Amino acid sequence: MKHLLLLFVFFYGLHSTAQVITASVEDRSRYLLHNIKWTSREKQGFQDGNNIIQIEKTGTKAQLGYTVRLDGMKHALIIHKIGANDKEIAINKLDGGERVFGPVKTEPYEFAGKLLLFYYRYLDKDSMKLYVSEVDKSTLQLINTTQLCSDKQENVGLFKIEKALSKEITLQTSKDESKLLVVASGTDGQVFSCVFERDLQLIRKKVSKLKLSDDSGIFQAMVDNNGNNVIALGKNRYSFETFNSSIVQKFLVLKSDNTEHVTDIEAWGSESEFRNARFQISNDLTKVYVFGDYSGEVANAGIWLSEIQAGKLNVSKPKTFPYPEDFKKRVYAIGFGDKKKGNYGIWDADLQLTEFENGDLTISGSPLHQNFTSSVDNNGKLNSSSTFLVGPVMMAFLKGNGSIFTMVPRSQHNCGGSKSLFVPYKDKLVVIYNDYAKYINNNLADDVSPVRVNMVKELSLACAVINKDGIIVSRKMLAEGIARMNFYNTGYCEFLDDKKILVPTASLDKKTDDMKVVLITIE
C-alpha cells in the first residue's frame, strides 16, 4: 500500500480569523475493521482498553431451494479477544460454535460502556425469541441475558422466507447517551419496542398492534433523553433506477409512560409521497426534525421537513422545499435524475440534517442510482448486471419557508465512502466527502463521470466550505487515494467530538488486511 499524504489544508475568511482543517493518518489494528463478506460472514471489533473484542458472525448453512426452511437460516457467533500486539489471547465459540442464532442477523452494540448482543433464537416450530446479553469482557461469556419478546413466525418455505429474513433489529441511543431504544417488527402489524437506561434497567416495553400492509416495515426510529420515541413505518419502493427508497405511511409515537398515538401520513391528503424519512433531535432538545424527499411528476420534486415538539409529540404537517428547475436539470445532466415530457426530477437521496448555533438548518445528501443492464448472448442466454452509483453532494440551506440549493458535482461507484459528512462551523458548512482526485479543485464543472469500478483507488478524501448563501468558498484534498479497491469509509466514521472526526479506511480487496484511519480536526 502506498503511503497516504499528510496534508494540512487552510481555509480563510471564516469571520475575522482563519479556519484550519488538518488531516493526519494513523495506523489501527485490522481487528477493528468492520468486515462483511459476500457469504454473510461478518466481523466487528470494539476497543477494550489496550485489547480488542471482536464479534464474528458466521454465514448460514446452504439449503436446497425446494426444502429451504426458516429454522435452517442460522449463524454461529464467535467472540475473540485480541491483545495489544494483535495476537489472539482468548476465544469463546458460543454454544460450541454451532449455528443456533437467527434467522435474523445478530447485532452487537456498545452502550454505557457495555458490549451488548441482540439476537434471535428459533427454539420451537412456530416462534422466534429476541434476547439481549452482555458480553463479559474478561471471560467472553454472555451474562445478564434477558428475553425481550417472542415473535410467532411460521416456519415458512422458499416463497415466503424473504419477508421473514428481511427483519432487522433497530437500535438507537438518545442524544445524551442515557437511553437505548430497541425496535423489532413482528407479524400481523405488530411492532415491539423497549427502552433501556444506562444500568440496563427497562423503563418501557410494549408490543404495538397497527394496521399495516404486508409490504410495510420499520425503517427509522429515535429516542429522546426522557425515553420518548418515534418510529417511522412504511414500505420499500423498488425499481430499476433507484434503491433504498421508502415511502412513509405512519409515525408511531410512544411516550415513556407507554401511552401511544399514530399519525397517518397518507391522511395528509397530499398528492406527493413523502419518502425516506430521517430523524434528528434539535440542539436545544425541544423538538425532533423529520425530513426526507418527496415525489413529483417525475422522480422527486424536492425535500420535506416536519417537526415533532417535545412534550406533545405531535407530528406537524411538513413544509416542502422544491428543487429549483435549473438545479434539477444539472443533476439530471450528471446522470441522477429523470426527464419526461419536459419535466425533470431527482432520484432518491440519502439525506442528513445539520443545525447551526442560531437555529438555521441545512438538509444535505447525494442522490443514488442503480444502472441495470441486460443482454442476450449468442447462445440465447440472458445476462444482466446492476451497477450502483452515487451522485453530486447536494445541499439545501433553509430559513423560514425559503431555501437556497447548491451542489458539489460528483459521480462515483457507491461504497461506504459515498456518505458525506456535514459539520456546521460558525456561519459556514464544512463538508467532508470522497471524490476522484482530478475533480477536487475550485473548478465546479458538471462534466464528471465515474471510472472503472476496479479503480476505486482514485477516490480521495476531500473537504469543501460553503457559505449559507450557497457559495462554495473552496474545495481541497485532505488525503489522496490509497491502494487498489481501498477507500475512506465515511459511512463508519466516528465523531470524537463536534470538531474531531475519525474516518477509517476500508478494503474491497480480500488480499488487504491493513487498516489506517484519518483524523480530521476543524479549528
Task: Explain the layout of strands and helices.
Layout (H helix, E strand, L loop, with lengths): L7 E7 L2 E11 L7 E2 L5 E7 L2 E7 L19 E6 L5 E6 L13 E5 L2 E11 L2 E9 L6 E11 L8 H5 L4 E4 L5 E7 L4 E8 L4 E8 L6 E8 L5 E9 L7 E10 L5 E5 L9 E8 L5 E9 L4 E10 L9 E4 L2 H10 L2 E4 L2 E4 L2 E7 L5 E16 L5 E9 L2 E7 L2 E7 L3 E2 L7 E5 L2 E9 L22 E9 L4 E8 L6 E3 L5 E4 L2 E8 L8 E7 L1
Describe this structure in words.
With 523 residues, the protein is an all-beta fold. It is 3% helix and 54% strand. The protein is built from two helices and 39 strands. Strands 1, 2, 36, 37, 38 and 39 form a six-stranded antiparallel beta sheet that branches. Strands 26, 27, 28, 29, 30 and 31 form a six-stranded antiparallel beta sheet that branches. It has a five-stranded antiparallel beta sheet with strand order 3-4-5-6-7, with no helix packed on it. A hairpin with a 4-residue loop joins strand 21 and strand 22 (300-309). The protein is globular, with a radius of gyration of 23 Å. Residues 1-18 have low confidence and may be disordered.
Q: How would you characterize the largest beta sheet?
A: 6 strands, antiparallel
Low-confidence stretches: 1-18
* Topology, number of strands: 39
Q: Which class do the helix and strand fractions yield?
A: mainly beta
Q: Number of helical runs?
A: 2
- Helical amount among residues, as a percent range? under 10%
Strand content: over 45%
Radius of gyration: 23 Å
Task: Compute the average pLDDT.
Answer: 81
The general outline is globular
Distance between the termini: 30 Å
